[in-house]
Amino acid sequence: MIPREDSYDVADLRPIAVAVSRLLGCAVLTSVVFDSDLVECWVYRDGERVHRYMSEVGAAVEWFEDDDGEFKASFDGVVIADGEPVPQRPLGVDAAAFTSFVDGTPDTEQIEAALRGAEDRLPAELQHRVIIESLGLPPEALTLGARHVDLRRFPAAHVCAVSR
Known about the structure:
alpha+beta, three-stranded antiparallel beta sheet, 4 helices, 164 residues, 2 domains
């Protein structure tokens, strides 16, 4: 499926994943790359998100100035306590969460290595490709932004939008 993007060139894949996983009773994997810094993947089953992966939590930390003029960091809406380090690691490195997307016998060591990422930190687009390849999935179909997809290359694709 190829989602329609909004005016900011963004497609929210989560409603599509919820609907497809619920209707078809299968696992659905979605992923997004943010500004070459972060790969985020979600796994859905039966309409529910069952797993979340982030390649670099630190890239998703938000900074704000509190009422006292102090700068604070938060992650997922939770303020990081003073003196606590800002997380700089992957989240959800769990090959088992991804094995249902592998055709054949999964190589869990290869999947975990792809999720952990290279020690010299790859750009998110490249790490996304490595993750998709570790699952044995076709990266040329699954690592393109929807606006870059040439439908002639993927004749079986369905362009869709989710009504809210």
